[in-house]
Amino acid sequence: MTSAKRRLVSVLLGPLAFGVTAACFSGTGPALLPEGDAGGGSIDLSGDAGFVRSDADIGDPFAIDGLTPSHGPFSGGTRTRIDGRGFSSKLRVFIGGVEVEAGSLLASDPTRAAIVTPPGPPGFVDVTIRDEATAKERVLKNGFYYDAFVVVPDSGATSGGTRIAITGSGTNWGAGTTVSIDGVACKEVVVESPTKLECVSPTGTPGSKDVVVTPQGGVPIQARDAFTYSDSVDGYRGGLSGGALAGRVKVLAYDQLVGTPLPGAFAIAGGDLATAKVAKTTANGVVEIDGITGDKVTITVAAKCHQPVTFVDVPVDTVTAYLAPVMDPSCADGDPPSIPPRQRYGGFIEGQLVFPGAREFERAGWSTVPAPTKPTERRAAYVFEAASSPNQRFTLPPASAAITPEANGTTGYEYSLLVFPGNSTLYVVAGIEDRSETPPKFVPYSMGVARGVAVPAQTRVQGVDVKMDILFDHQVTISAAPPAPGPRGPDRFTASLSTTLGAAGYAILPRGTRSTTLPAPEALPFIGAPSLDKAMAGEQYVLGGIAATGPDQQLPASVVARVRTTNANTPVSLGGFLGVPVLGQPGSGVWSGRRVEFSGATGPADLSVTQVSSGGGLVVWTIVAPGGTTSFDVPDLAALPGPDPVGLMSGALSTTVYVARIEQFQYGRLRWGQLSTGAWSAYAFDSLGGVY
To answer: Could you identify which of 24, 295, 404, 561 might form a hypothetical disulfide with 544, taking C-beta atoms 3.0 to 4.6 angstroms apart as the criterion?
Structure first.
C-alpha cells in the first residue's frame, strides 16, 4: 500500500493502528479500489503537497449488500448469508417486516451474518437490518424472494421415480396442471387440492434444478433450485400411489441397486395364482393390468434373480416396486453380475464453532465445556448431519474427526463436513471425551445447530458458523409401561432420548439410552439433556423404548418411538406398546407358500411387514399388508411359468413378522421408506424357523 493510501485510511477511520485497519478490510469486505484498479499499479490520491482528498468515500459504514441465497420457500426455514458492513451482536434483521428470531441469527463478523428466514408471502420482500445500539436502519429493496411453493422431499435419485409433494401458497391448481423439473415433465401428476399436488420425478442429472408448475391455461410458477438430483444410496423411492382403484392397475418395476427398469418382471394381480391376472413388464419396466374387480387387489412383483414383493389389498391404481437383486453367481450367464459404477456427488459444509464469552468478533475459549480433570481426557466437538430416524444410537466418530481447542480459526474453531447435495441441517456436540476407556466415554456439555444449508453438488459452502450456546443442563424423566414379560420374552427395557431438528430430522444424543430389566421402574431419568432454547427453541424431545429379550435385545420385542414432548419437569408417559405377533403361517413346519397368518398383535397397527427368508438370507420375500389384516392369501411363486425361478429357494426358512404404527399414515400413499423400522412410531416383531 502506498503512503497516500495509508493517509486516506487514517483520515477516514481515525487514529487506528494500520495493522488493525488492514485486518478489518481483508477478505469479504468491499474493495477499497475499483476492480480494474486493484492490480499491480498504484493510484496517487494526493497532490504535490501531499493533500489528502476529503471527498473520497469507502461506503456506508453500516450497510447491507445482498443475501446468498436470495430466495427460498414461503414456508421459511432457508439458511442464508447476509453480506454487508458494520454488523455486531446488536444486529436485528427483518424479512418482509417479520423479524428473524434471535436464535436464528448469528453475526459472525462485521461483514456477514447467517440467518434462517421466517415464513412469508410469495414474491419479493424487503430486507431490513437494524443496529440496536445506534438505532441505524438500512433497507435492501426486494432483497429476498419467497417462492410460491415448497417441494418435499427436495432431493431424489438421478434415475427418477421419487414421488414428491408440492404445496403452494395462493395457488389455484386443478385438472390439467403440469409439473417439470429442469424442463423435463414429471409423471403421474395428481392434484389433491388447489394448493397441493403430487408427481413422480423424471430422470435427471446431478445438481439443483428449477421446478415449474403450470396450471392449465395459466401462468407458470417457478421455484429455483427447488429439487436436487443425487445418487445417494437411499435415493430410490416407490410404493403405492395414484387414484382409487377402478378396474385397472399400473405396475412399475425397478432394480433397487441401480434404479434401472426391470423388463420381463411378473406382475400378479390377485392372491390366488389360479385366478389371478398375470402380466410381464415391458422394456421400460411398466405394465397395466385390466379387468380388476373390487376396490382392492393384492399385487405381487417378482423377477429373475430379484427379491419378490407383495402388497396386500392395494386400494389405488399404481404400484411402484424396487426389487433388490439376488447377489449370487448363478444369477448371471457366465460371470457374476456386475454393478455399474455410480458417481456419488457430494459437497462440503465449512465454518467455525463459535463459543460464547469473548469480546465481539474475537475467538473465545471453550466457555461451555469444563476443563479436563484427568490426563486421558480432552475437550472435543463433533459435527453430525440430522438423522432421518430418532431410533438410531449415538456413535462416537473416530478421534481424527474431533474439533479441539487447538483447531484453526478466527472467531471460532474450524470444521468441515461432507454431505450429499440438497438442504442440510447439522448439529454439533461439544464435551469431554476419554478414549482410554472401552467403549470410549463422551460427556456432552453444549451443542449448536445450523439449519437449511443449501449444498450444491461438488461445492464447498463456507461461512456456516455454529453458535455453541445450548447447554446440556436439563433432566427428562420417562415413565414407561412396556409389555409384561412372557415365556419367551421380552425381559429387558431400554429407553432412548433424542431431539427434533425441525422437518430436517433428529439429533441423536450422547448418553441418550438407558437400560433396565423388566418389570421397569416407575421412572427412568436422563440427566444432562439439552435445553430447548436459543437455536433449539420450538423443538421437542423425542422419547422411545424397546422391550426385548436378553442383553443383546433379541426377539421377541416391542418398540415405541417418536413420543414427543417439551416437558422437562415431570415424568413423561411412554406407552402404546403393540403386542408381539405370533406366527401361524409360515410356521415351524412346512410352508405351502400360499398363505400368511399371525395372531397376538394387540393394539392399533397401521401396517404389517412379513419377511420370508430362504437360502440363508439370499432370497427374501417381503409381504406388506394394511393394519388389522392378519390372514391372507399370496400367489404361489413356484408355480409361475418359465424356466427361471423367481421366488424362494427350497429348504430352510426364517420368517419375521412386524406390526407397525406410523404417524399420519395412509396405506394408499405408502412409500418404500415406510417399510423400514426407522419410519415407525411403534412396532412389535418376532421370528420363527420353518421349511419351504
So the answer is: 561
